[in-house]
Fold:
Amino acid sequence: MIILGIETSCDETSVAILENEKVLSNIVLSQIDIHKKFGGVVPEVAARHHLLNLPIIYEKALKEAKINPNQIGAVAVTYGPGLIGALLVGLSFAKGLSLRYDIPLIGVNHIIGHVYANYIAYPHLKPPFIVLMVSGGHTEILKVDEKKIEVLGKTVDDAAGEAFDKVARILGLGYPGGPEIEKVSKNGNPNRFNFPRPMLDSPDYNFSFSGLKTSVLYTVQKLKDNIPTADIAASFQEAVVDVLLKKTFKAARNNGINKIVLAGGVAANSRLRQKAKSLGEKFNYEILIPPLEFCTDNAAMIAMAGYHKYLKGEINTLELEAVPNLKINS
Structure:
């Protein structure tokens, strides 16, 4: 079974081809340099670049996989959540392929796609497991079993990725904020500033990062011109990592599950990866983290999720619409 995946939910244009569960190609073109000057993703600009680049990326993916379009058995595409214009470009392209080659169309939830990135890295991964999903505007704890994916907790305001971007802006760092904060933090003291850990001891599994971001802002304003950027960045990063992991391990413990999976762009953060593995060893939990190339948005994860939906007979019609605020299990 050869399945083609398409991902255009935000600012990465990506096409991948899988043969069963083996990645034959996974081409990703990022728009980071284009949006840097704006300090964030401009939806209209993102959509225009998807429109321009998707046919080129598609041809490149076919060439790298050494197949022709007639060999494709199904096309999987992100239909939400994401930027509406960007989603429509990918969805329209996928529908065209479905019509042209008379192959099934499979709509994939972008967040579920991030979960399935781990199935690429760990082919023998089996539920149940807990997922710490930290992707762009999403921060959630998920429980995955054989029958469903359940949301145990989520952010009530800013997602972790959004907090990284906003704090980077406060500190005068570049975009995207996550990699910039991580880079600067390597030379900082994570214990110099005792930033708050919002909702750390609340009985639920929800998150809140807005107050933490505000605390950083007030600290910077108080220090005025003498700002120890590296120490502030490291202390902020440590606070975020502490909250993310304490909540995740609590969810795993309370649900009797000893397998924790990280997913999403923030899962590329070296401090988060390091501390997750360290805590896993300390408390005897299995920690699975995908390689960096499968943490950020990519079409291989969409193709993998689509392949598993195909095996279950979950096929969509050409009436499938883009849903920018798509929820899990909707």
